[in-house]
Amino acid sequence: MNAQQQSSAPVFDVNRIRQDFPILDQEVNGHPLVYLDNAASTQKPNAVIDAIASYYRRDNANVHRGVHALSDRATQAFEQARETVSQFINSPSSRQLIWTSGTTASINLVAYSWARNTLGKGDRILVSWLEHHADIVPWQMISAQCGAEVIPIPVETSGDIDLDALAGLLDERVKLVAVGHVSNALGTVNPVSQICTMAKKAGAKVLIDGAQAVAHWPVDVQALGCDFYAFSAHKLFGPTGMGALWGREELLESMPPFLGGGEMIDQVSFSGTTFNTLPFKFEAGTPNIAGAVGFAAAINYVQSIDREGAALHEEHLLNLSVQRGADMPALRRVGAPRHAAGIFSFLIDGTHPSDVGMLLDQQGIAVRTGHHCAQPLMEHFELPGTVRASYSIYNTVDDVDRLFAGLEKALRLLS
What we know:
With 415 residues, the protein is an alpha/beta fold. Helix content is 40%, strand content 17%.
């Protein structure tokens, strides 16, 4: 890094942050680990690991159903976690936050509970070319059942949603617009508040896939103006298998349960069943209690750090990667969105992404290669996939240096 880059680097104590993440202190293939696969899953701080371990050591019991002390403690921790997550996204009420196993399950809940019971022949769902498969496939499956259509929203060569094209698609046939807050493949930060305003004028509901956004900056579902917001814990330094769906209360109240069984019932008899109130009517079976505890611990950890400084730090790493990439003739960045969040997606001329990824792994550098669960986007750009380096709060300038040194070595070996 040159002197100008050093002087412009934001002040953020990344070395102290790294001490909170024990997994980073290891070698892979004889090299110190450089973890650049954060868009797939972030690492976990000690605070999250300890919270989950403490729950299992001290409070492990089922929730809501027991009168004994352990069940009471587990229930309190479980519902306090719901309150913590609700406040994190500025939900008006914790009743509007449904626990799920992750973003995919959250989107499917809306598809099977709201869309299947709302849409009919001739109705349309708009999704962008940028979407993760989890925000495409459920809508295709539901549309096949009810006769609706899934229409793609065009994307500019930069990787930004074509808002003029979106405006041209919005008419009375459109019942839902489903877009990601941030593209997991290119890092594009979509203008979701503007998209919500456009969709509302056409009478459409809006679902936002927030999986890639929640770790980077505060999210305010009320300010965004969306109808549903789906996100996961594991991309926010929390445990896998845990996520949430936020929805407008009037919509959630109108939606029938998606799964049947324990917890989601009020009364059951062979003459008929009545269902529980929000949020419990969508939470059949024993929930992921430890996951909720870990989710809350992750949010408490995130809120304990300098979030503005962290965002500037991640932005600096991305900008540095773009600069370094521009100086590497064989490297071609895929997409150049107007606003990107922590993702550097690229190709190396004359190489396959998987080969580059394997050679980087041999040097202890973890990146993601392939289509990133965004095959329509790759097909749109006529690409086999990309190499994706994705940054988080614990990555360093040295990680960027290691990445580009590793790419130079890989290029020599593959030439």
